[in-house]
Fold these 3 entries.
Entry 1:
Amino acid sequence: MKRIAVFASGEGSNFEAIVAACERGEIAARTVLVVCDRSGARVVEHAAAHGVECFVFSPKKYASKADYERELVARLDDARVELVCLAGYMRILSEVLLAAYGGRIINIHPSLLPAFKGAHALEQAVAYGVKVYGATIHWVDASLDGGKIIAQRAFEYDGDDVEEVTQRMHRIEHALYTETIGRLVGTDPEKRGE
Ligand code: GRF
């Protein structure tokens, strides 16, 4: 059983999908830690509901990014985390986290990278009028959404309703992220009832 941490800043629907996939044996792992940089975020409630330890921090209370990342590395070390899954964590990682956990951090991004990097990928894709959307899972390095791609999945959408495309994106993301993590860490045939 691998030990996973999820970093999130918002809703936490990908966190929920990962926990559920672990329970179903589609991922042979346990989510042992959630890291969140916004105290009011829904993911904090979701973590509590699943009994997953949640470290909530306020970046502003630290003198620098290096300072809070040193704290995050200590939390990851304490929880003996083997894979970090970024899921809506809206911060670029610095050398502190990358030196300690580089090669063990993945991210999900709501575009077919390298198109539409950054925080507003979906809105930008809708404004651009694209007809094929998609999600990307990639290794995390110091660049903005620029690490080596692990998996991508596309879907067609011919409309301009950001809300609607966001819902469709989430369904694709949940399937793609859980399948990809399952490929990386293995599955649990016994729990899957095989
Ligand atoms: C997802 O769309 C992910 O691709 C992006 O942020 C969103 C997080 O959603 N990086 P949630 O918090 O998992 O619901």
Entry 2:
Amino acid sequence: MKVCIVGTGYVGLTTATCLAFLGHEVTCLDIDEAKVATLQAGRVPIFEPFLEDLLAEAAGNIRFTSDYAEGLAGAEVVFIAVATPSLPDGMPDLRYLRAAAGSIGTHLDNDFTVVVNKSTVPIGSGNWVDALIRDSFEQRAGATGEFAVASNPEFLREGSAIADTLYPDRVVVGVDNRRGLDVLSRLYRPILDQSFVAPHFVPRPAGMGAVPLVSTDLASAELIKYAANAFLALKISFINEIGQLAEKVGADIKTVARGTGLDDRIGPRFLQPGIGWGGSCFGKDTSALVATAGEYRLDMPIIRAARDVNRRQREIVVDRLLAELRILKGRTIGILGLAFKPHTDDLRDAPALEIISRLIDLGARVKLHDPVAMDRVRREQPDLAPYLCDAAADAVAGADAVVLVTEWPQYLELPWAKLASTMRTPIILDGRYALDHQRMVAAGFRYLAVAGLAPAAADHPA
Ligand code: UGA
């Protein structure tokens, strides 16, 4: 099928590459001409494992352009995957969506086109986009053809975006039009049936069967996206809140999380305690959900609480260092991991940035390291560039304490005993409960966690 994707961020580019890999004929449209040139040269401007490999495999089916007329020529499906950053009032900034919808209306070029909202947009945006497209479509002299607007929310995670797209738990399609549903079912058929040959670098999970299609109306699809992200965010905040109590009663939160998550009804995923969530989605989407509810004079206390708990987790890191070192002024703190989670270089709402800024405010010196995000720090946070260290060992050497903020696998394998001997005081705060407590103690460290680390945990390994 002929597909056009507007916006080449994480979601747009991953969706485009996967659809092209599945055999669709995809045109990616981005108004950023420099980005288009990079993509045309086969390079991916973001760090996402295997995306460049998949793009190379799909190269024959994918094109990049900044020209709407070229992008929309003959397109049966047009995805809108533009950025929707947060405004100060918590609602997403819809200016790019508005611009995209207007241009799409001007350039629609098929008997019947399905325009799909893939960006996470406030509930009701499907109707709004429909109206915007219709306005510009009707202003066109001699415009013919029909269109339908659909919502097809995205559930991919950065760092595993390709696997999440090719092997999803479900596909959600909201469209108030039978023909539109047929088009999208046809588009996703290879994924729904899992009938494609899996790329060797992202193999199909063992035992994977057909993927459920949830077909519904626009508003329900839009709300599913927010409900899913809010639930994941609050699951993490929930275990972090329990962690605070675990600390008081002398329980080990890692074991509590495991013992709780093994209940099938709860499940172990997104129950990892620690510094909490960051990234471009959970913060933005929970705040948009609360703001949307507010338009209806509805409070969402559970979601507000999840946000508060998450903010507190970041503060606890610095409070714990203060309690341990007493004075932070003039101390050196090594920070391992800057991206908001491993396997990405994304710094949006990264807990590390907030922790670093508070440490600097309190007079501490920082030494920073990340395996992939440092170039991005240089570009997006130039103030922090002088503190970047080429190697993790350099960020640790001479420090009064080290904080593991992002659990990159390479940090787990560092020669910790050797590193301990290079520190002024060998204190490690494991913000993700990722390091082995006993091993770190044996390596000579005083081992701290965000909360809920039973004093006896070292004697009673899980
Ligand atoms: C999230 C959702 O997981 C995706 O399903 C969704 O499509 C995406 O947002 C989106 O709306 O675009 P993402 O933000 O890429 O994906 O990353 P996650 O893997 O969900 O991690 C979010 C944050 O939660 C990270 O900072 C991670 O460190 C933290 N986290 C995750 C925990 O603290 N504990 C956990 O148990 C899991």
Entry 3:
Amino acid sequence: MIQDKKVLFSGMQATGNLTLGNYLGALKNWVTLSDEYECFYSVVDMHSITVRQDPATLRKRARALLILYIAAGLDPEKNCIYYQSHVSGHAELAWILNCFTYMGELNRMTQFKDKAARHADNINAGLFTYPVLMAADILLYQADVVPVGVDQKQHLEITRDIAERFNNLYGPVFTIPEPYIGKVGAKIMSLQDPEKKMSKSDENPNASIYLMDDPDTIMRKCKRAVTDSESAVLYRDEQPGVKNLINIYSACTGHTPEEVVKEFDGKGYGDFKMAVGESVISVLRPLQEEAARLERDKAYIDGVIRANAEKAGYYANKTLRKVQKKVGFPERVR
Ligand code: TRP
């Protein structure tokens, strides 16, 4: 669409504090992918309000997330980094796609069932049609690939179904997106319950390392991480806590798990946890410093926000106009 490069779309919500898992599992890979693809990375604030938010907090977090994308190494000149709510095409396409999505399909979404159970007092229509907005995000930019975690795979499948349904009716309008399941996308688990994913919504603050944690906090959380009584740094499923720490260390240092096992042969968990803590600190400190620096450069960030919203809007409108025409909306007279 844009050049000879394939198009990639992904987004993150600015709800909760991002964790090391979000960084190592997603954001870090986005940076790697940004050379190969024409990338759109959105801060999906419209998805966030499917759950009640404090407005000031949402606004603050959305900006912090956008800054974090850049601090992590995404060049905003090459990657389109923008707020979903700044491009009205998302809402407009979502409406149209709502009319091509069945209640039955949405009823099968496991995330809806989970969230409806967790927010029983606010099962709003937006929560139900959340996957349709996500489909609009992706299809608006004719994305070829979408890097997502396993928890979002079902949403990508419904996106493909909606796109195929539309194309079957009206001709080839949408590119059918493929999921991009990263080769290296380290899945980081909770430090307190290594059978669970590290989550920004965990109630136990020791379970997750937050991207903005200071060095002492990071070290303390690593030292308190749940391990086992084997007293050997081995990479195996029987030692999920240790395995997770190896994955973290491996992702932070670039050493393979096998190398890590060799490095800590004969050493105790105390030494190992300390090294893990240090490796995390050495990754997060520059990220935090860069985020703080960008935070202070208000004019620069505002410029990025403006320019990229415009760029996103341009591509979004191209698709939107085509779709509007296909479904029979009257043409705009200039
Ligand atoms: N629903 C995704 C999540 O919570 C975020 C998201 C919204 C997204 N739109 C997207 C991810 C489009 C990939 C592509 O993780």
